[in-house]
């Protein structure tokens, strides 16, 4: 009912021609899906077309003995022990053994499911329950059609847990363990133990999750990420000369086509407000289609994926390189999606470049616009290169002096690949460090031929692209300074005490060495940083007209400030979405951010009926930008709230004031900090 109210409100605000187009499109999809559902009740939803089983294009991911050394062997070894025991630590769960459950495969798929399960290479393999939220114990049924699955809200259960597990992002790590173990590295099992576990988990998943049934066919984004990780795992094994039985390779080929088909028929595309979900859909299509043998249908799929990857990426990344969803973590996810997909495209261009000049766009039917051939792929790529390079630099710039990426907007820990295991100790357990953005920056640099020899991500991009690097470009990062701090402080002095506040934070006695001064005006972020200092100011003057607002926070004019090891202020992230409406709304509210506000006059509106919408009633503008000072303000009618930040030789000074009626509100003391989805500390100062 809550979502219905939200949809009715959105429909009311929509232009009538667009509303009619969306209503008719929805009606057609409902009728199509209903017919598909009825068919699936009597016929297996697994593909029967044998041509769908044929794969090609493996073999570029071979690692020699010298390259093995850059892997974090200790972490890989520790993680692999958990994975072999079917223990997972996802979204704050802690390491949890995920047991099997009684089979609940729907009747039309039981026979084929058992045939698949018989491909398991070990009698000792124990199946995994892929349908359970193993944090709460809530379980979905793989016997139910995907469109009949529900998402419980405010009940403690989290659908993201089975989705995250079923992305299968641990399988490439197990495949890497197989590669490392073959070099007889200390502490590892026999290499075939890891390779066998990869294959058995793939078989287990496909047997337990027939296409279109169960919770893991609900979200096309997760389907695309899962497909990419299955294919990466298989490619790692094949490239490094591990034997894969023909029956399992055929099964993976069929699963590839099943995943692509489902994504294409349920693209998370709309005329406006497309998000990282749609990018992930397209990346799944691109990577999946890159392994398909040529045919009129497969060529159309490949061309569509390549087209939409570059068109949509150019749309979702702003001129300064920031992502239009207003979140640093979703920026990293989208940047990573695009980077690895482009690497895969560059690596298979020699075999597939001719497809762009001669494909039949009528061979597939998709919601998104798909133009007839030829496709100017290289032209689109060249046009996107400046944004791509800037997007990678953004990942590096928002990482503070302790290699922790600052959180602006939502954080849900989303990744495409996790081949480079970066973990920290949390509650005495090895936990993924989801705020390490550096590896994504390294991956982007590798696309342009600058390969960090210590980065697994960079090495992977190098191999995926077959060293077909993009031509390097030089970007002018100089910034123009403007504004008058004296005038701002003069107005501060004139105001009565209830309308203003001054705080100062001492710098080390030796002061600060030269600061890097960086601005992202389109995204709305201003940064001062060096090796022992980090300050960022959120100052967003507008949202892109087509951008979704669901991952933004009430954070305009908020700061993140770290002096040496001392964290003065830090954006706390998101914590959770659907399990708790209260926590969801608290972490995105002004209560969780160090930002000036007028008492009793909010500048965002949180729709209680929908967790992924935030209405912004006012935006901020940067009115001062200098090497040692920044100021922003937002207006409420004729009144303004202003924040000025100055850095001098001894301290950081923060001047806040309300120029107008009313009082300046207090800064909330918010000590909780979520460093990844589902993970929460009691203080920011202990990370």
Helicity range: 25-40%
Shape: globular
Low-confidence stretches: none
Distance between the termini: 40 Å
| Number of DSSP E strands | 18
**Treating each run of at least 4 consecutive H or I residues as one helix, how many helices?**
18
Question: What is the percentage of strand-forming residues?
Answer: 5-15%
- The count of domains is 3
What spatial order of strands do you see in the largest sheet? 5-16-15-14-13
Largest sheet: 5 strands, antiparallel
CA radius of gyration is 26 Å
Q: Indicate the mean pLDDT.
A: 92
SS class = alpha+beta
Topology, element by element:
Blueprint: H1 2-13, H2 16-42, H3 65-68, H4 73-84, E1 87-88, E2 96-97, H5 110-117, H6 160-165, H7 171-182, H8 191-208, H9 220-239, H10 246-265, H11 276-290, H12 296-316, H13 328-352, H14 377-397, E3 423-426, E4 429-432, H15 438-447, H16 456-464, H17 485-494, E5 500-506, E6 516-520, E7 525-530, E8 533-538, E9 559-563, E10 566-569, H18 581-587, E11 604-606, E12 614-616, E13 620-625, E14 629-636, E15 639-647, E16 651-659, E17 673-676, E18 679-681
Antiparallel strand pairs: 1-2, 3-4, 5-16, 6-7, 7-8, 8-9, 9-10, 11-12, 13-14, 14-15, 15-16, 17-18
